[in-house]
Amino acid sequence: MLGHFPTPYREELLYSLCARYTLRVSYPSAKSVLQDLFGAPTTCAVVDLPSRLNYLAASLPIGTSLTLNRLINRHSLFPFFSAFLPPARVKQIRKDMQPSSGPTTHMRSGIMGSNIPMPGYMRFCPACKQEDEREIGEIYWHRAHQLSGINVCPSHQVFLERSSVSLREGRKHLLFIPAEKAIGFVPLRHVNPANRNHQILFRIAQDATWLLNHPIMGTDLKTLYNRYLRLLIDKGFAGYTGSIHVVKLLDEFRKFYPPGLLKRLHCEFSGSDHVKSNWLLRLVRPPKHAQHPLYHLLLIQFLGCTAEGFFQLPSDLCLFGKRPWPCLNPAADHYKRLVIVELQSGKRLRNNKPVGVFSCECGFAYARTGPDSLPEDRFRIGRMLSFGPVWEAKLKELWKDSSLSLSEVGRRLGVDPLTVRRHAQRLKLSFSRPGRRSKPVNRAAQLKGERISTVWEKKRRTYRAKWLYAMKRNRKVTLKSLRQQFPRVYAWLRQNDVEWLKGHRPRSQRHIQSTSSVDWKRRDAKYAIAVRDAASRLKSVPDRPVQVTKTAIGRAIGAVTLLQQKLHKMPLTTLELANVVETREEYAVRRVWWVADLYCQENQIPRKWELVLRANVYSLMGTPKVAHALETAINMIKPSVREESVLRVAS
After folding, report:
1. DSSP 267
2. How far, rounded to the nearest angstrom, does the alpha carbon of residue 253 sit from its chain's CA centroid?
3. Where are the alpha helices (DSSP H) in 306-386?
4. What pTM does this model have?
5. Cβ pair 587, 545 in contact under 8 A
6. Which residues in 294-313 are b (16+ Cβ under 10 Å) and which e?
7. Rounded to whole angstroms, what are the CA distances from 488 to 458, 466, 467, 494, 507?
8. Is 234 helix (H, G, I), strand (E, B) or coil?
9. How buried is residue 39: exposed, middle or buried, by Cβ count under 10 Å (0-12/13-18/19+)?
10. If exposure means fewest CB atoms within 10 Å of the residue's CB, which of 37, 202, 289, 303 is most exposed?
11. Of 371, 453, 437, which Cα lies nearest the Cα of 405?
């Protein structure tokens, strides 16, 4: 157990606490510090999501306020990621941070799956430095300053500056370097209120800081989607059915965020507007995977919301308010009580607005148009669908009481007198009420459902007869010609009597295949060359490697459908595709060598797990080809970097 450990300052990073502890105790080596604090000399001085925290928490002095939960929630960057991850994954990440998990924690958090890198240096705010020196006498590393995409101090509206602590140098991974040894004097660069880019960066910093200070233990991806859809609908970027106005959304997003700013944040769009890798479209469509928090913060700000306001939105779309909803059956003992827990969306919109269907267990069902704008909208009936047995039993009871007029009966049942008469006739109640003059309604005033049923049955008989007569008159008639002769008949039967129509269709005529006018041999030779050239271009992309697949090649040559449907007619193209299409293992090897070249350009020697994470080959590192590529790449990087260092010293 440690005899002493620093008391944490406000928003101090665990890395900073360990650095201040190291400075006070004066250990002879970096490995001695790691052994005492984390029980393993081979672990790393991690900034964002440290591991082996259970060992550290158990080693802290008795009476300390630093519990395991406090270390994770208040002194790491965990809350920045947890807010946008599913609860099950958040729970697993918390478990990973307790033992020695290696790169697993970063893989689960989504850091390695995005194009957004972690900061290359520890950063600080010059105004915070001055304030810390003035108020507490020493400076420390603030955790909000180390977040990806955060370039402004949210407390002072001052731009962050880089310290001398690089997070990408090999030996620095073992060291906890205190802020006092890495921060010098730097003049303040204030945010310009008139500069739009500056204001955007400041609001991102504010939202990120709110996430750190209000830890959220995960959010279901469906909940995130529902909240975004509600905001998109309010802004006119989506319809109530969930359809996204993609072109309008992308155009307005680009106007809101200048391309230079998105590139600075590593959030620019790659390829065309409709490419599947577009991170913005992945956020606003039904979710499949978690995304980096910075993507979420950009979208939230674009939609005119803050992080705090976003997480206060209902988890459901809630176009008709929060569940449960009231039953509006005046004949029931639970009248206006919140007993309806399920809401069905209407099949069609009404005046481009959603329709909700509310059904109670008592049989009472109604529909109304949304979305709700006032609290009293919950007690509004748009259209009656069903009264149910409880309402009908009450009608029978009141009908027997001859002292009640039809108006009074209707008032107690929540309907008008004509509706009372209509349903009395439907229920076959006697209209001979003592002392009351009541008569059945005429045909024109019958219930709409009954009128519709009669008309529908008559129309069905008529259309069936026409269809059968046409088939009988011409035994060789085709379905196509029948559709052309009787378009209205066919459309009605297709919509209202489809099962009968399927059993009464003309026999299909034998189709005589027409001779194709396409010269497939010539086309095959042309596309074989195009496939080879496209594969070569895809492999020579200067940015992160793109996997050479049949779909990627088809997209590059504008022949996706052709390669999917007509490949059996093009043997040369088929052979060429088999030669150039990459397996997952081959694509992983190419990523390994691409990352190896990056390390050589950066003059850095990575450890094997760093190379694995950056190349994103964790799931394939056990396969022979990838394992061999990793070993060969490491052996290639070391002499190359050392030679570059010697040349630099000599010059």
Report:
1. -
2. 17
3. 307-310
4. 0.65
5. yes
6. bbbbbbbbbbebebeebbeb
7. 15, 11, 11, 10, 21
8. helix
9. middle
10. 289
11. 437
